[in-house]
Amino acid sequence: PNIPRAVCFHCRIPIQKMWGIDDFEIGRPLGKGRFGTVYLAREQNTHFILALKVIFKSALEKSQLEHQLRREIEILSHLRHPNILRFYNYFHDRTRIYLMLEYAPGGELYKELQKHEHFEETRTATYIEEISDALIYCHAQKVIHRDIKPENLLLGLKGELKLADFGWSVHAPSLRRTTFCGTTDYLAPEMIDGRTHDENVDVWCVGVLCFECLVGYAPFEAPTRNETYKRIAEVKFTFPTWIPDGAKDLISKTLKRTPSLRLSLKEIIKHPWVKKNSRRIFPPVYKAAEQ
């Protein structure tokens, strides 16, 4: 029976033995993905607003990615950070799997970037501090995201960044992996070369993200995938003349071919350009992650 047993402290949703689609009022679609659609939803009893990600089992089975979803659920269920999209619970029926997720009213960073073409220094530096702090927390939990890009970053009620979509993420106690994954423009050189990679692939992505937020396009963007790969392998990119020197310094020190030579995430947060321009709302979490 669908009997409430307790209440989640964070979202006030009853913790139940079994959830069902009838427990929710379904609203407008928020986005469409490869395997299904995300809808705005409201829990019937508490009227708590959330996002309901509906995934078709047949599509997952066809792509043989059931293990990837299991891994994503396992990883998300253990993460608690103000800049990581909260995962509440999941349930399923005969044909679909439903993920109960935090609703981010600001939508995708990608759409916001398209609308504005590029962001000013303050906004970009704030996002860079937020994503770096979230990744320090992830790496402390031995989780590498591996697919950071504007499409996987959402905006919360106060405009804060929310890292989402952990489909390519991995819990790796050694933090060393060989699987080729991610999005072309954001791939690190070691992934393209087929070398073993570690959490520094996420650091590389922060540098790419900083460039794209300020300029409006990714630094290694090219007409074909192979040309993009070549540019990444050679770390071949140019700054527009109007990019501030502080941002150039940060990006240049992050986009290093040798992973160990890249700025660390803590160094990115402490970088003078970030310190000067960031207007982050929430206090840093990485100090707690160290303890």
Automatic annotation (TrEMBL):
| Species of provenance | Terrapene triunguis (Three-toed box turtle)
Q: Which reaction does it catalyse?
A: L-seryl-[protein] + ATP = O-phospho-L-seryl-[protein] + ADP + H(+); L-threonyl-[protein] + ATP = O-phospho-L-threonyl-[protein] + ADP + H(+)
Q: What is the lineage of its organism?
A: Eukaryota, Metazoa, Chordata, Craniata, Vertebrata
The EC code for this enzyme is 2.7.11.1
What sequence ranges are listed for the domain Protein kinase?
24-274
**What PANTHER family does the record point to?**
SERINE/THREONINE-PROTEIN KINASE IAL-RELATED
Name the UniProt record assigns to this protein: Aurora kinase
Per the record, the similarity remark reads: Belongs to the protein kinase superfamily. Ser/Thr protein kinase family. Aurora subfamily.
Q: Which domain of life is it from?
A: Eukaryota
